[in-house]
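Researcher: Go.
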Amino acid sequence: MKRPARLSIAFGAVVTFALIAAPPLGAQDYSRPIVYAVPGMDKVEANLNVAYRRDGGAEMKADIYVPPGLSTDARVPAVIFIHGGPLGANPSPGAKDWGIYRSYGRLMAASGLVGVTFDHRYVSMKVKDLETSFADVEELIRFVRTNAAAYHVDPDRIALWAFSGGGPHLSLGLRGGRTFIRCLVSYYATLDEVPNAARIGETPEALEKYSPARYVTKDAPYLPSVLIGRAGLDSAGINASVELFASRMLALNGDLSILTHPLGRHGFDAYDDDDVSRQIIAATVAFLKVRLSRPEPFDYRKTMAAAELQRLMEERKYEAARAYVKANLSGPGDKVVTDVLAAEPRLTSIGNYLLGSNPSAAVQALEWAVETGPGSANAHVSLAAAYEKTGKVREAAAEARKALDLVDKDPALNDARKEVVRAAATDLLGRLK
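Model: Structure:
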């Protein structure tokens, strides 16, 4: 089939603005599927050409692929595929009818998830056209959730998967108030539109709204889990936007996975028929199944709190870190963080390590260790040594006696370690006399 002259993209590749490096497309094969398949893709329930929006004379349609054999009341997560662009006006065939999206829809359903592909009006990258495109995507999301029962969808477990020039639409999952969007997937997608402002005749400020990377800040109300499929041979501009997004996610200790095809081109999932492409797609499916199965939306503020706690401890500010835990990580679900970063054995080990070089920090760490593990004879004898080092004789004696009281009751100590603790406490008391 001869490629229509008015189209200048492949899977949303914006050749007009030189944003990406796409495969040669003298004669685009729109039927080309992805290079990965699983058993049962031919057995899924395909609901084709479902009208999800009527706007004036336009009727926007979606294909909804459902796993076979579901019970009437079964509800499973849905993955919404956002094609790239711009495609110009009235592209033919529409993106949802391309082989890549048909095969992705079937892959999702055969993997136990509902797959949703659809057309949205992505005429140009001008703000006015982006607004139309974004409105279509938002209406599709609303339609899927409103009609969730008809298609066995769990409306509170949605993933958005965007390709190429569809990347800006992932910002819909980053604007807050949409914790039902549990995760985002970006394949060779632009994640920051701001650098393109001048060449498309818009201001940087106007494009910030459509740039996912600009929403990844410490003030973000919500950050879903994110997976990025990166093409090593993609354009420098797209990969720079990926680097910006990734660096911001990592700075917040966000839930980020990056899968790189080092020699993959833009559209590697359809054009690079190799084991790396297949591994990336398979890993993406696994990512979606795990993240969408979580009982609650990802709590990135907890991971940010963990990062802040790590920073305070790295700076030897143990008193401040101890106060930070009480203020920000004292809930029942926070033990997953504190049982690792602020566990008694770790704090005791840190205190002993610092005793020779920074006795005051050692005291702070060991006081925290004793508070965290009051039954630890090892923590008490270590604190006794730190108090002795800093001239707190009375406090040192009290801690040594406490260690002796606990040494035979401490289940964490084997017989050899008990003798070491007992000898250290006894020697310390002898010195203090």
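Model: The domain at 301-432 is CATH 1.25.40.10 (Serine Threonine Protein Phosphatase 5, Tetratricopeptide repeat).
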